């Protein structure tokens, strides 16, 4: 069937297929068969029916089966409310809960609530441990200018290692995260170039001592002493900070490419992810250790995302008077005719490219465990939230969540 529409300067012709042609007839037959399968499944295999409904909804063709779906879900709701209903596995329970809630059924979330309270309790114990560790370390008193935000730093660990069973790993991971922030503040705000050179040697020894404690725990649990790798990562970080300090002291910023090569190291991501690799304790052997020491793409792409996000100027939480260089500044000095917005767009494109690289690494064969790969991805996912201190409405909920976790602890700055 063909028809046309003419209205003013607009005209269009359409051809509607006959409902009696072969594709339409085959479509009607398939819809009828699927409806029969759904109807026949209703009282036999609950999980199969739930999966079928979920599949139909994801394909966007569930509107063909409204009556069958309504009847099936109503049966599921009645059976679920009965004390004699047959239990499903975790996947089935979760799927049934979502589909019933989605259609407006009142289904108890008691299990989810209990699980949430258990996880909250675990996180609160972790926060108490971190608060005590940070207080005993004494850096907040000695370095008045540095950030004093152990709870915020622990949010990284909570978001990256989400498995409740990884409580010890989260606590240990927060320690290097905290120290990365402190070193950043010291190099950004404290001392002359000569002072920083002396500090670099001293701080290397300090963090070597701190890594001994973490290394001992890893060796006891996983049978591998990572102290050489951890110390190497700290030295590389401090050297990168010192290189930046030399640039700013001389007043001569490097080319943007050189800045970024150094900046992905000074981001601290490598230090944190090396610690995390050993704390997870999965797939540790000479090959993977050499690989992680060598700044592999899965780490460098994550570090690139953090460095460039930070350099876009969205991290306004620091309240610092120091002078940080940035990729944006280096790029605009090299290309003075480029507008700020054009330069920012270039940085956003680099972030997009780094994300593509990270996604490729996560989807490709890798010597790393799935847990480590997912944790690297989680770091990148958290960056826009942790480094977007403008009008981002999600920050209000983040602060509220942090306060709720620390409700029983003494007040901490955010």
> Helix segment count?
18
User: Percent of residues in helical segments?
Assistant: over 70%
Low-confidence stretches: 314-323, 410-414
Domain count: the total is 2
Which term fits the overall shape?
Answer: globular
CATH superfamily of the largest domain: Farnesyl Diphosphate Synthase
Largest sheet, in brief, is:
2 strands, antiparallel
- Name the average pLDDT: 81
Domain Terpene synthase N-terminal: 38-110
Cofactor: Mg(2+)
Domain Terpene synthase metal-binding: 135-204, 207-357
GO molecular function, one term: magnesium ion binding
Give a written overview of the molecule.
The protein is mainly α and about 425 residues long. The protein has 2 domains: about 20-110, Terpene synthase, N-terminal domain (Glycosyltransferase), CATH 1.50.10; about 115-405, Farnesyl Diphosphate Synthase. Helix content is about 70%, strand content about 5%. It is built from 18 helices and 2 strands. The chain has helices at about 20-40, 45-60, 65-80, 90-100, 110-135, 140, 150-160, 165-190, 195-220, 225-250, 255-265, 270-280, 285-295, 295-315, 325-335, 340-365, 370-385, 395-405; strands at about 1-5, 10-15. The protein has a two-stranded antiparallel sheet with strand order 1-2. Helix 2 runs antiparallel to helix 3, helix 8 (about 165-190) packs parallel to helix 10 and helix 9 (about 195-220) packs antiparallel against helix 10 (about 225-250). The longest helix has 30 residues, at about 195-220. It is globular. InterPro entries: Isoprenoid_synthase_dom_sf (IPR008949), Terpene_cyclase-like_1_C (IPR034741), Terpene_synth_N (IPR001906), Terpene_synth_N_sf (IPR036965), Terpene_synthase-like (IPR050148), Terpene_synthase_metal-bd (IPR005630), Terpenoid_cyclase/PrenylTrfase (IPR008930).
């Amino acid at each position: 069937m063909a028809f046309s529409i003419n209205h003013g300067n607009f005209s269009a012709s359409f051809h509607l297929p006959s409902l009696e042609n072969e594709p339409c007839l085959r479509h009607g037959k398939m819809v009828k068969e699927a409806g029969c399968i759904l109807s026949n499944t209703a009282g036999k295999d609950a999980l199969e029916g739930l999966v079928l409904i979920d599949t139909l909804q994801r394909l966007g063709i569930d509107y063909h089966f409204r009556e069958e779906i309504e009847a099936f879900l109503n049966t599921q709701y009645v059976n679920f409310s009965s004390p004699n209903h047959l239990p499903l596995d975790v996947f089935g329970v979760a799927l049934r809960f979502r589909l019933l809630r989605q259609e407006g059924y009142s289904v108890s979330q008691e299990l989810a609530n209990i699980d949430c309270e258990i996880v909250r309790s675990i996180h609160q114990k972790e926060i108490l441990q971190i608060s005590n560790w940070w207080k005993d370390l004494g850096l907040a008193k000695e370095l008045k200018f540095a950030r004093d935000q152990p709870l915020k730093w622990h949010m990284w660990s909570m978001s990256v290692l989400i498995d409740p069973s990884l409580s010890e790993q989260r606590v240990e991971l927060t320690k290097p995260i905290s120290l990365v922030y402190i070193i950043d503040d010291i190099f950004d705000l404290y001392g002359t170039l000569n002072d920083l050179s002396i500090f670099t040697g001293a701080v290397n020894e300090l963090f070597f001592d701190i890594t001994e404690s973490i290394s001992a725990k890893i060796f006891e649990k996983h049978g591998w002493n990572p102290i050489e790798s951890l110390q190497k990562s700290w030295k590389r970080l401090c050297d990168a900070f010192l290189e930046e300090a030399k640039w700013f002291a001389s007043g001569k910023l490097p080319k943007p490419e050189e800045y970024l090569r150094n900046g992905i190291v000074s981001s601290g991501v490598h230090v944190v992810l090396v610690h995390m690799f050993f704390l997870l304790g999965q797939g540790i052997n000479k090959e993977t250790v050499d690989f992680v020491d060598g700044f592999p793409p899965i780490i460098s792409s994550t570090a690139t995302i953090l460095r460039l996000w930070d350099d876009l100027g969205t991290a306004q939480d620091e309240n610092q008077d120091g002078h940080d260089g940035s990729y944006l500044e280096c790029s605009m000095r090299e290309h003075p005719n480029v507008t700020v917005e054009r330069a920012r767009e270039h940085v956003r494109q680099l972030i997009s490219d780094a994300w593509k690289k990270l996604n490729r690494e996560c989807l490709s064969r890798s010597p790393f465990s799935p847990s480590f790969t997912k944790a690297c991805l989680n770091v990148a996912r958290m960056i826009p939230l942790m480094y977007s201190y403008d009008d981002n409405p999600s920050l209000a909920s983040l602060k509220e969540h942090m306060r709720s976790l620390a409700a029983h602890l003494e007040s901490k700055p955010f």
